[in-house]
Give the backbone structure.
Amino acid sequence: MTQRHLVGARILAQGLVGSARCGSRAGRGAESAATGGTADAIGGVPDATSGTLAPVEVARSFAAHQGQDLPGVIASLALRSGGAVEPVLAAFDRGEIVRGYPMRGTVFAVAADSLAWMTELCVAGPLRAAIARRGALDLDERRVERAREVLVAAAEPVSAPGVGRGLLRSEVMAVWEAAGIATGSGRGYHLIAELISFGDIAYGPWREQETAVVHAPTWLPAGSDLEGAFGGDREAAAAELALRYLTSHGPAGERDLAWWSKLPLGTVRPAIAQVAERLESGFADRDGRLHARPEDARGGDGERLWFRPGLAEEYADAEKDTMKELLLPGFDELVLGYPDRLALIAEGHHPALAPGNNGVFKRAALRRGEIVGTWTRTGSAGKRRLVLGELGSISDPQRRRFQTLFARFPYTAV
């Protein structure tokens, strides 16, 4: 049984419906932490003319968006910031948004002022695993250090913030090969991921249908590392991460945050305690409706869930909108921002969403807070058609509404 009301509240919190998308007025942005100021909002202030947030504010409010599917994460950011691709690409070009490996050994799109401190906070486990794989790739400390020196020398001159165009991955590989550093059999991509995790490089501006590699210390804002943003205070950084996650992803619990960040519960629990006064909490019943007391949440699991202030009241007013049809990219945070997807898809249908359970996810079609199908497109450019893989009954009017969403879905040229 899915918990459609829990999903509906998350749809609202994630800015997929409503005018002031992700517009939480709580928390401190790391861009202000680096300068000793106080931000007005984690999610920023909605644009006065459009009622939506700039792509960088959406990226910052979420802490991180799954980013291994590049067209997908661009669409995810666009869906929450007005629906157009161009402002998202421009944010990458200006150096406001980057991609990196802050946690879980996975690529995420992150506000540029957050990548360095977030990586320092969360990357230790995945980085140890990456270093352990060196032997199988015929890499050692000397070869990695040489690769670092060569790439930094090549990338730094093309990494002026918001101006430089970086290096394409093919150019990175060519630079390494010219220096005698073999890149075949996955070594090149492993080196890129490891050097991003170490904070030497990042994926920056949009260039030739990819995000180019830049020298991170040059491209990223000064003072945005853990020391600059939080005076080296890991507990304060964890609290900021908790506030961003629970504000944008909540209703969510401590175990959701621990899974998402891969920080231990011993770090997550005091982090939530530090920001509890800036959040609200409750308990979900079997249908996902929130209650103040666990005994009133019949059929629920009794776990305390945290969410941004006012969300429950807003959901009461916006429930109808959250239950409307919705098309999402395959790696959207509504689907992958939690340990499992059973709140929004029946367990028996999960294999259709993630065939083989190997980390690849199809695009989801939602109705009434539940995944009712997967979707793709077919046909040549200009003649694209929606193809729905139905997991339940979809009426003709519902199908037409999905078609309308498909017609305005924010595609890149990738």
Notes: The CA atoms of residues 81 and 368 lie 22 Å apart. The chain has two domains: 1-14+322-414, 25-230.
